[in-house]
Structures are given as C-alpha cells and as structure tokens.
Amino acid sequence: MNISVVVPLFNEEESLPELYAWIERVMKANGFSFEVIFVNDGSTDRSWEVIEKLKAQSDCVKGIKFRRNYGKSPALYCGFAEAQGEVVITMDADLQDSPDEIPELYRMITEDGYDLVSGWKQKRYDPLSKTLPTKLFNATARKVSGIPNLHDFNCGLKAYRKDVVKNIEVYGEMHRYIPYLAKNAGFQKIGEKVVHHQARKYGSTKFGFNRFFNGYLDLISLWFLSKFGVKPMHFFGLLGSLMFFIGMISVIIVGVSKLHAMYNGLPYRLVTDSPYFYLSLTAMIIGTQLFLAGFLGELISRNAPERNNYQIEKKI
C-alpha cells in the first residue's frame, strides 16, 4: 500500500464526507493505493455515524472510536499503530489542510529520501491572537529542538516514512513535537514544505489559548527527557553538588570571619545571628535534596524496562 492517511477528529461531522471525497479524488488521480484512518476522539456529534457510512461505501476507510475525548496525541498514536502504508500522512479533519498537497509530500518521502516532511502554513487565515503566539512558540521550539529549518512544528499536515511512526511514541500532548521525537529516535532527515492553509469551513476551533502554555511546559519536559532521561544524576547530581559546595564554602567563610574577629579582639556576633549562615545552610540542604533526587532518579532509570531500547537501523 502506498499511503495511509491518519485523520484525528473531534466533532467534525459536517466536514468528513467532503474531506474523504477530496482525498479519494486525489488518490485516484495519482494512482495511489491508500487507506484513510479516521480516529474519532470521543466526539459528541454524529461523526462516528458519518464514518460508518463512509466505511460502508468504501473499503479504503477505517475507523477508530474512543469512548471519551483523550486528545490529539493519543488519536495519532492509535492511528499510527493501525497504519500500513509505505508513507503515512496526517491531516486535520476541519478542511484547513489540503489533500492536494499529498502527491508532493509522498514524492519528497519516496524520492528525496526524507524521513519526515512537515507542512508550513506560511500564509495563515487565523486571527493575530493566534498567529503571534504561534510564531513565538515555533521560534522557541526551533531553538530547543535543534531543528532550525522548521517554521511550523504544530502543522497537522505532515508526511512520514512508515519506519518513523512505528518507532516513536506520541503521548500526552506531544503531537506538537513529533519532529523532535523523530530526531531523538535517530531520524535526522527532516524537511519542510510550504502548504496551502484554508479558512475553517464548518464549526469552530477545538483548541484554546492554554495550549501555548502547555506547549512550552511539554517542550521543557521533552528537552529534559532527551538530555537526561536515562542519566538524571548528570543533572540533579551536578546541580546539587554545586549548591552544596557553595553553601559549605559560605558557612566556612562565616565561621572564619568570626574567629578572625575574636583573635584580633574585634567586636563580633554569634554565627546564628548572621543571615548568611541560614542562607548557606539552606543551600546545603537544597543541594543534598537535589543530589538525592538524582540518585533516586538514577535507580529508577537503571531499572526501567526500556533502558536499553536503542534504535537499530540495520543488521547483517
């Protein structure tokens, strides 16, 4: 099979028939063998009934129905597990992503050798309240992830080599960082294609402003896990040791200052009357706690079942 199209959706009953007809038209025009996997993320409208009707009309349709709304990442995870195509395409169900982009995305994967191609909605039909935070978010993601050529990490229209989706785990709300997940899994050839963005035709957006705050928190988590996930002692141990060392040196300075004053007959006060003593003691306590956190994290990491789960590309 040439292409699997994974479409996560939540309350998009109006757009589904039009979206599938558009995808089918593009696939047949280019002679692709294909499947479309609709993942119904706990919709409360008639989306599942529409998917069932589409399935009855075409064997190319597959459907997955969640009992409740879990989010886009779980929907993609289940869709990736089901996908059988040589190339996997993801797109949103709101008709803002154009299926006409599929042939070129497929060519970039199969002929140009990309592992992943991410769409870039260079011209967007969104309000400034959405586009400005998106630009800031993408600038931060480029810097942290080390993928400087991507301008739109969160674009729903992406193409993947099959090996990519079978070797990454999309969880929580990490769908925003699939290129970063792919890079961490060893897939280095990540490209970008400018794609057409269309205004929403039916319904309203399902994402609120809080996704930007959650996105930054998820980015920090992903960066930390990629750097120190299997070696937490390198982070907490180093930071804890540094704080403990600074606190200990400060305590020594406070004590030596008092002894110097006593020896030279100068006025002095109790060590416990100095605020620097308590600041130093606090630094030593926090340093010890950080060191122990790293030690416990190391014990947990060493006993994790996936600690030796390495990405092996070939064997001969």
Automatic annotation (TrEMBL):
Keyword vocabulary terms for this entry: Cell membrane, Glycosyltransferase, Lipopolysaccharide biosynthesis, Membrane, Transferase, Transmembrane, Transmembrane helix
Example of a GO cellular component annotation carried by this entry: plasma membrane
Top-level taxon: Bacteria
Pfam families xref list: Glycos_transf_2
Organism: Bacteroides faecis
Domain Glycosyltransferase 2-like: start-end pairs: 4-167
The keyword Ion transport appears for this protein: no
Positions in coiled-coil regions: none
Gene3D superfamilies named among the record's database cross-references: Spore Coat Polysaccharide Biosynthesis Protein SpsA, Chain A
Listed InterPro entries: Glyco_trans_2-like, Glycosyltransferase_2, Nucleotide-diphossugar_trans
The protein's name: Glycosyltransferase
Single GO MF annotation: undecaprenyl-phosphate 4-deoxy-4-formamido-L-arabinose transferase activity
